[in-house]
Amino acid sequence: MKNSIIYYSVGALLYCPANNKTIASSIIAERFGRKYSLALCLEDTIDNYYVHDAEQQLLSTICQIYSTRQTKNFYIPKIFIRVRSVEQMKRLVTLLKNYFDIITGFIFPKFSINNSEQYMECLKNINDCIGKTIYGMPIYESSSIINLNVRHDILYKLKDIIDEVSPLILNVRVGGNDLCHYFGFRRHINESIHKITPIANIFSDLITVYGHDYVISGPVYEYYNGENWENHFKHEIKDDILCGFIGKTVIHPNQIESINFSYKVATEDFLDAQNIINWENKTSLVCGSTFGTRMNEYKTHVNWANKILYLANYYGTY
């Protein structure tokens, strides 16, 4: 498993079209709070005819944030750029070369056998040239992982490819809406995506293949308003956590607070995790929990305990 808090701290990743002219002022004014990440999207949210304009606006946004930060103290989220292609990524590296101090990394949509090696090579080259670590986050949403005849082979081949640069892969992400699209699925406000069996099976395979070595982020939830939406949203996050996801893609600022709240660690979990990590009893590897409600066993709970401590460090406890 990942052994640094950076991998667990992407959290609520707010998606924003890169051509949004107000996002810089919103960040500078801290309108979204002080615990979220930001994805500036040049892919699905941008019409093919306006890609150049969106790139120019992205450059303007980054420049405005960077220059204002020189004279004003405000929270800068982890900023990621969701690109369309390796070629665009290379072009943006040149355009943004003076601003990488405030850029955390790139997001690779439709990650597949056809583009994975090129993305990883480009990511390695950037890190060889830039004086800080630039991370990558591949999104597993390609139709190629639908086919049961080849799904497992593809997932393991892609893992072999990203394993070559494993420290640079901040999160593995899943495109829940894209995967639903292939089947013509769309859940209602009170329905968790984890109840859609074909999609849940893909999630399960991703967790099985990648979950031991990578942090995997949960899929987007489309609703941010409406009757009882927040409780339904928290229910899906609870399903995310139970299935092994950490963090979630956000499509509206209204969702950020719910994610940060849902990933807070229960006091019992935090204390038990501390006890497991600091185990000193050499005669027994089993004992009762802090509140006397369950069994703690070092050999079977140490990975869980490490993860809990990272989450508590970033999200806090309750």
Describe the protein's topology.
Layout lengths: L11 E6 L5 H6 L8 E5 L9 H19 L8 E5 L3 H10 L9 E4 L7 H14 L5 E6 L10 H13 L8 E3 L1 H8 L13 H14 L5 E2 L11 H15 L4 E3 L5 H7 L4 H11 L8 E3 L6 E3 H18 L3
Parallel strand pairs: 1-2, 1-8, 2-3, 3-4, 4-5, 5-6, 6-7
Antiparallel strand pairs: 9-10
Question: What report would you give on this structure?
Answer:
This protein is an alpha/beta fold and 318 residues long. The chain has 2 domains: 5-263, Phosphoenolpyruvate-binding domains (TIM Barrel); 265-318, no CATH class. The protein is 42% helix and 13% strand. It has 11 helices and 10 strands. The chain has helices spanning 23-28, 51-69, 86-95, 116-129, 151-163, 176-183, 197-210, 229-243, 256-262, 267-277, 298-315; strands at residues 12-17, 37-41, 78-82, 105-108, 135-140, 172-174, 216-217, 248-250, 286-288, 295-297. The strands form 2 sheets. It has an 8-stranded parallel beta sheet with strand order 7-6-5-4-3-2-1-8. Strands 9-10 form a two-stranded antiparallel sheet. A hairpin with a 6-residue loop joins strand 9 and strand 10. Helix 10 (267-277) crosses helix 11. It is globular, with a radius of gyration of 20 Å. The relative contact order is 0.12. The model has no long low-confidence stretch (mean pLDDT 96).
